[in-house]
Amino acid sequence: MATANKASILLLAVAVATAACSTTASAQTSRLGKLVVTGVVPCNTGTLIDAATSPAFPDANVELRCGGNVVAGGTTSRNGSFAIEADLTNALAALVGTCQLVVDTPLAKCNASLPAAGALASYLQGSLAGMLGGVFRLAPAGFSFRMN
């Protein structure tokens, strides 16, 4: 029985140590912080659409795509603004310029006279000094309309 108890205690110790290691690994991953992208989606066509002078696009689906994969997403508010959060580990490509914001919601949903096909897309901009308290903030560099 003493050998069985020792084996049980050893198995319990190994399980606790494994759990502690995985918790430490998770904590190290989350230490990278998070990426927050905020902005306003315009309801307009063209290249480098000025969000300040264009009407807003409410209820549009906005996706953060890095390397062709959707990393995070959100929906614009009634005034066209959005905020997307992603784990910086998953969105590290944003720092090297391989991420884009993409709005596949047809522009006809915000203005019936605009095309029902196509998408708005924008690269990201921000300063590397913009990381405060583990949060790295970026914004759209300027949305442009593209046909699918």
TrEMBL record:
This is Phylloplanin. InterPro entries: Phylloplanin-like (IPR040404). Residues 1-27 form the signal peptide. The keyword Signal applies. Keywords: Signal. Transmembrane segments: none annotated. It comes from Sorghum bicolor.
